[in-house]
Amino acid sequence: MRVLGVDPGLTRCGIGVVEGVAGRPLTMIGVGVVRTPADAELSRRLLAIEQGIEAWLDEHRPGFVAVERVFSQHNVRTVMGTAQASAVAMLCAARRGIPVALHTPSEVKAAVTGSGRADKDQVGAMITRLLRLAEPPRPADAADALALAICHIWRAPAQNRLQQAVALHTAHARKGRTA
């Protein structure tokens, strides 16, 4: 499974591609950041993020895109920019028919470090270890994007089984109502 992880942000949008399956060693395919100038017009910044993500999708051809789920922050302006960048990533994937998964920051931290309250340094250290890198990816947005991809690789099998069970239950419930 090849997953493109996106840590959305207007100034720095982290991008990371990881390949592998749960229970086996993972491989980093690529990591980087799409940057936009803080003083640029919002529409230009979103266009630059879209172009950057499209380039990564063209080059790496992931089967899935994992995006950090936007959560409420104290700074409404920051959360709005993050949500807009997140929507661009989802749109790019949807345009190509690539499934998108949203993961919360605490879910990603728990998957990668074992603690949903891990700090940036702990996440970077575990990413370095899990992907057998010489040093943590910089900036932290890049490491977070890799963590999102890893989280999805590890959680996708369980999520798929859960979705199948819910679908089966729903189908049985409908049969019972129509019979």
TrEMBL record:
GO molecular function, one term: magnesium ion binding
Cofactor(s) the protein requires to work: Mg(2+)
Signal sequence region: none
Name of the protein this chain belongs to: Crossover junction endodeoxyribonuclease RuvC
Binding-site residues for Mg(2+) 2, renumbered to this chain: 68
PROSITE patterns membership: RUVC (PS01321)
Enzymatic reactions: Endonucleolytic cleavage at a junction such as a reciprocal single-stranded crossover between two homologous DNA duplexes (Holliday junction)
